[in-house]
Amino acid sequence: MHTHIGHYHILQGVDFAVPEGGVTMLLGRNGAGKTTTLRTIMGLWQASAGRVLFEGRDMAGLDTPRRARAGIAYVPENMGIFTDLTVQENMVLAAAGGPIEPARLDWIMTLFPPIRTFWGLSAGNLSGGQKQMLAVAVPSSSRGGSSSSTSRPRASPRRSSTP
Asked: What is the DSSP letter of 100?
């Protein structure tokens, strides 16, 4: 995948896959293209070459909200949680389409046991690590969506594995 921002060629041949049930980390120095990669996957930036595949489906032409509804999640550095709301309210708000399905909620709470412990507390009172857990759990509460850690987004073509 390649992404240009203005005249700058930021991503040059990024290619990776997230296996189902797996976790993939993007590591690199400042300016290496980690954020641009994630923003391109989410549709916040458009790839100038290559494509993003999710569960075998090409995401080209889908805007960010449609990609999120498909199950692709992005947790920005600022964590994207509402600190004045409770943990429960953050989760319900993210579910948008209605109440969180019980099986999905059980799965989330198995992955992140502190979510159950702090369910009724203000998200602003959580520690940094607990806020990060909530930030990763929130997109998982969406109906039909799946967590970014269990999804399989793919960027291509294969030219280089270094952003």
From this structure: P
> How many domains does one find in the chain?
2
User: Which of left, alpha, beta for 112 (phi over 0: left; psi -120 to 50: alpha)?
Assistant: beta
- Nearest of 151, 157, 82 to residue 121 by alpha carbon: 82
Give the structural domain span for 134: 87-141
For the entire predicted model, the pTM comes to 0.59
Beta strands in 45-120 (DSSP E): 51-54, 57-58
The answer to the question of residue 79 being in a domain is no
101 DSSP assignment: P
CA gap 16, 139 in Å, rounded: 22
Task: Tell me the per-residue pLDDT of 90-124, one tens digit each, with 9 for 90 and over.
Answer: 888 877 767 788 888 898 889 889 999 999 999 99
Q: Is the peptide bond before 65 cis (omega within 30 degrees of 0)?
A: no
d(CA 110, CA 76): 23
Are residues 91 and 50 both part of a single domain?
no
Same domain, yes or no, for 16 and 70?
yes
